[in-house]
Structure formats: structure tokens, C-alpha cells
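User: Quick sanity check before I run a bigger batch. Here is a single chain. Can you write out its predicted 3D structure?
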Amino acid sequence: MRVVYEDDNIRIVFKPQGIETASETNKDTLEKTVGLPACHRLDVNTEGLVIFAKNKETAAEMRAGFENGFVEKTYLALCFGNLRKSPLTLTGYLVKDARNGMVQISKNKTPNSKPVKTIVKFIKTVGDFSLIEIKPITGRTHQIRAHLASIGLGIVGDGKYGDFKMNKVYNAKKQMLCGTGIKFNFPVTSTLCYLNAKLINVKPTFLSR
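Assistant: Done. Predicted structure follows.
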């Protein structure tokens, strides 16, 4: 874990892969290490930026920011396959499969489903893989991984939604998905509008090799 940005209200840290952001039962979490409440979460095997609030007012304001789209997150992923059209806006409905700890994406609305929207863009070819930029407009569980998989772009190393055969061929055991950027667009009436001038970016560890 490393601190990327900090002020009187928030702390933004880089979460490494393999640690849970927050949990009511697990004591070994990033939230416990930081000692502050997390404003959002990343999957255990996803690395990247996580925002923590230093006071209740900030926590409430940041929560409202996520709900109203004032916080824009960007991800990078290495994927198997090619994105034929770029940029591409993916929509659909997400349904949780609690028994298997997974989600499914469908085109049609079904009972207990929630709408999802994800914008994906091809960046470049990296070796045998495609580097894809992802901007989730909604923030559902496993949304990015499931949405990419639904169009044949399995994230390299993803053991749930990825291409199991290709993961084995490349001996890919690390999920190559990273929350790389955070941009704020709070209204001028918000106490956090000063963050609008800041653009927080990091480089994925899988591109540092």
C-alpha cells in the first residue's frame, strides 16, 4: 500500500492485488491498515486507487458524489481478444448469482437485475494482448469484468470471468485490471469542489515490467 494523495479530508492509496478493501468479518483489510473508512471498493484481485474519508462530512459528501456521478473512475486492463469498435458503450442488466459469487450480464431486464453502463476504449496492443481503458458509468459488483467478458474480452488472469484456456496457455494467474485514475466533478456548492482541479493517476504494476 502507498499513499498517492492526501489532504485534510481524504487519503487516496494504491491498493495492491490480493487484499480486501473492507469487510465486516475479515480483519486483514486495506481499511484496517489505513485506519479510515473506504468510500468505495475494489475487488480483492483488482489493484488500484481507493479513496478514504477522514471525517463524517467528507464520507457523506463522497458517497453522494459517487451516487450522482461526481466521481469519475478510470481503469486499465490487459485483455485477450480485440475491440472491434472503439470507443464502445456497453449497456445491459446485471444479476447477482450469490450461490457462485458471480454476476451475469443480460440484454433484457429481469427480476432483481440492475442496469449497467460501461465505456471501453482500445489503447494499444501490448504483446499478445489488448490494453483497454474502461470507464464504468454505473458501479456494480464485478461490472467491468463481466461486461468485458460478455463481448469476448476476457481480462488476462481473471479466474472467474476470463478465458480459462488462454490463462492456462500464458500461465496468467494475476488479474490484470487496475483502477488507474480518479477525477472529481463536484458542484461549486460542495465542500469537496476544490478536488475538481486534481487528476489522480497511477500506472498499473502489470505495465511496469
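The domain at 2-207 is CATH 3.30.2350.10 (Pseudouridine synthase).

User: Great, the batch can go ahead then.
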